[in-house]
User: What shape does this take?
Amino acid sequence: MSKDDKILKEFTSKEYEHGWSVDFDVDQAPKGLNEDIVKLISKKKNEPNWLLDWRLKAFSNFKKMKEPNWSNLKIPRINYQDISYYSAPKKKKMLKSMDEVDPELIKTFEKLGISLQEQKRLSGVAVDAVIDSVSIGTTFKDKLSELGIIFCSFSEAVNEHPDLVRKHLGKVVPAKDNYFACLNSAVFSDGSFCYIPKGVRCPMELSTYFRINASNTGQFERTLIVADEGSYVSYLEGCTAPMRDENQLHAAVVEIHAEKDAEVKYSTVQNWYPGDKNGKGGIYNFVTKRGICNGINSKISWTQVETGSAITWKYPSCILKGDNSVGEFYSVAVTNNYQQADTGTKMIHIGKNTRSKIISKGISAGHSQNSYRGHVKVMRRANNSRNFSQCDSLLLGNKCGAHTFPYIDIENKSSMVEHEATTSKIGEDQIFYCLQRGIDEENAIALIVNGYAKEVLKQLPMEFSVEAQKLLSLTLEGSVG
Amino acid sequence: MIDTVDLKKSISIEEDNIIKEIKSESLDKIKLSYKKYKEEYKYTPLLRNIEKKYGSFNSSENIKKADSYKDLISTKDKHYIVILNGSYIENISNIPNSIDIKNIKDLSKNEQNIFIDSYSKIDDSTDDIFSSINTILHSNCLTFKINKSTILKEKISIINIVDSSKPTYFRKCFIIDKNSEISFSEEFINVTRDGNFSNSVTEIYMDENAVFNYFSTQNISKNYHFNSINVFQKRNSTSNFHTYSFSGSIIRNNLNIKLLDKSCYANMYGFYAIKNSSHIDNHTSVDHIDENSISNEHYKGIVDDGSIGVFNGKIFVRQRAQKTNAFQSNNNILLSDNAKVNTKPQLEIWADDVKCSHGCTVGQLDDDALFYLMSRGISRKDAISLLLSAFSTDITEKIADKVIREEYQLMILKELEDLNYE
Assistant: This one.
């Protein structure tokens, strides 16, 4: 066996680190998808009638829709009737402080390396942790509420701030936007809601940690972020799921509203179970993320590090409606073994002087397929708009694939749009240079890949950046000769 | 879905058994190609326009005597080939001795077999509905055989004349034998009034060390045109394509190159300067199947008035095609607020030891450059046409032959004069 093969084999035989599951006392809905399940979820959540109607309308639309087949993915048939659409750790009483949280649960977080206690003390990150479908405890809530910031679980927000939710829900991602968003709209179980009032700069990073625990449950969370005039918020989302053999479905929706002068920064590190080395199991991740820059000078920035999931179908997008608004998209997508990723972004320029920037770095190894799919649209009245896109792919090994599908539609003569893409492997001369200076091959590759992805990683908040870098070098350990 | 009754009827009257079989196969594929229509023609509603206009795809017979078209031949080239509604008009053409042009049905059994092996085998009819329809409905497939080691320095003009109130079909099949080198230029001339539809499919087979140069000029005002060129290259062969488009209600160009063997070269260059609600759609694909091949692609365009420029370039690099170099680039200048550009440079790569890149830009003339020229006493109009012609030079300078290069540069200059820059 040559050295390359050996290293490749070592790399591909790596098992999933977060593969364990904790037995909570779980309250689970029967399998199947029908109107009764939608009603059941709504009832369990104690929802008002308008939301139930909204769900039912979404469900009736869902029944008419077909699974999308335009992506560059081979999606095995998903039996939507064989999934339980609601799973919640049994609530014993209302939780007010962290001490009341189930110790089992805290252990789960400790295993994940995001101990709430620890984070509370050290980093000052407020975490809204979502296990399966119900938001468990929100840290730092009191401190945030002093500033008027609302950061709570979605179901709480529905009951406590119905007007805000009603005003913004489904406005960026309409209920029948696409197949998976429509499914989410009908059966979403929980998620996070965040409202930053006028002129408030959120003093800490807000964070949600998702984890799919019970087997055979789909997770359908919904996040709604509203940044009022002149506000700023940085929002983090991290995801892990235990090792399960059956594929689990995840169809989330994230909606962001940025009003005049507001700025929202949304960062994701996704390391869900990607399936084993033969492509068995893993999470199907079908996510709709979209933000709208409503007011002038508003800004939305997406940063994502995608290392997990068997199938990723995800296009965080920006609608640049307000004049002078800015949209950004930074992405690193790593695929290995039989993982498939079709990810990218949409930048819709509607307002004048709007700017967008897309930096996408794809890394594929093993038998994986990694696609970038982007859409830059400049509408007729978007004078002086500007877009720059760069999507690079790195191939490790000769059995993987890297694909680029950029759609560029321009209808304004004063706009400037640039797109560039390259595909290559790690240069032998680069590795040689490192070796020559006493850096071994493993570290040389980690160094080069980290350097390759640096433009994106540096966009992440500190805590995440460290985690992401660790993830990258772990996943790519010795994958090229 | 399109109506297949007419298509079936047309197959049933076909006399040649082999061709009948090929046509029936194509009919089976039509469902598949229709499926792909939605994505492949996302920005170009050609099918809807044609169906609305004619209701049927069937063509009709020639009407006038061939001699009456003699005046249309204005080429400076010594050799030219005149094709009327798909059939070869021998008596007003002038071809060199080394080329043999025949209808596939008139070939001897032996000769026919050579073409049948390749005929309609690698066209894009599984991907493209108009290619499928062409395969089913064309009545004359013209075969061009270029024998071993034939080197013709002078370019040969192919003049296609469209004179019919119904859709017309052109079908050509080139076999270029080992070590040959040949150049063709092609144009379409519409005799009938606005809104005619011509559908042309060409297949080109290049054997080892062959060199093929192809120039296409598209200036068909208010007519519709579909053009699919399918190239199949063997070891060490080189193909050069130059496409210049200036007007047309809808022009759709498919250029598909398969580099089947090692060390092939493919160069694709295109330039479009369109105005008055013209619609140009260039779809290209290069498929690198084996090692060490190189492909270069550069399309540039100036889009004025209510015109639409569409570009879609695909590069495929298969797992076996290590050491591939593939480059693709598309640059556009928008001159009007009603103009649109839809571009999609696409890469699909399965091999790791490759160098591939693509880029595309959409923008406008540089105001600083314009100001610089005007500050030196050049009128605004002249400065603009100077900058625009400089923009086109990237493409024309790729023409190796000086005489041909100058001919095309002059032609572009003339077209650029008519553009409006506000």
